[in-house]
């Protein structure tokens, strides 16, 4: 897989505002060959015949949709993430939380109770 436009991240760092979605260039190839049949003094088959060959090739040049289309603003590059969350989106805010944001709890995966299957949250998160 070769995609020079995505591999070169320096363009994104040097000019974060004027970045365009790159074209996705995929060149993927593979081949497989296998064995016996033999034939030197006409046949043998080494455990009776075989041979196999396979080739696959993919060439695809299209505008990339796999990349998240979000481009950080100049303020975000400087560390100001105050506008990163849309407060009008019900998926990111909760009126039950005093700050308005839905608290995200991170659980310890090694703390699963074998009876209730509940996990213990990490402290201070």
Structural summary, described in words:
- By secondary structure, the protein is of the alpha+beta class.
- It has two domains: 4-80, no CATH class; 85-125, no CATH class.
- It contains three helices and two strands, in the order H-H-E-E-H.
- It has helices at residues 4-7, 10-14, 74-77, and strands at 23-33, 53-63.
- Strands 1-2 form a two-stranded antiparallel sheet.
- It is elongated, with a radius of gyration of 28 Å.
- The chain starts with a helix and ends in a 48-residue tail after the last helix.
- The mean pLDDT is 70.
How would you sum up the global shape? elongated
- Order of neighbouring strands in the sheet with most strands: 1-2
Low-confidence stretches: none
The tally of beta strands, per DSSP, is: 2
Strand content: 15-25%
Main beta sheet strand tally, sense and closure: 2 strands, antiparallel
Order of helices and strands: HHEEH
> C-alpha Rg, in Å?
28 Å
**Could you tell me how far the N terminus lies from the C terminus, measured between alpha carbons in angstroms?**
39 Å
As a percent range, the share of helical residues equals 10-25%
Mean pLDDT: 70
The count of domains is: 2
Annotation field: number of helices: 3
């Amino acid at each position: 897989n070769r995609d020079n436009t995505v591999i070169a991240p320096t363009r994104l760092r040097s000019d974060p505002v004027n970045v365009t979605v790159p074209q996705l260039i995929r060149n993927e190839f593979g081949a497989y060959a296998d064995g016996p049949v033999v034939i030197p003094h006409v046949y043998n088959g080494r455990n009776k015949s075989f041979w196999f060959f396979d080739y696959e090739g993919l060439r695809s040049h299209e505008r990339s949709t796999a990349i998240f289309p979000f481009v950080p603003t100049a303020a975000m590059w400087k560390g100001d993430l105050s506008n990163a969350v849309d407060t009008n989106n019900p998926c990111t805010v909760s009126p039950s939380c005093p700050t308005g944001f839905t608290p995200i709890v991170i659980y310890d995966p090694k703390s699963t109770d074998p009876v209730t299957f509940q996990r213990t949250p990490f402290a201070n998160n």
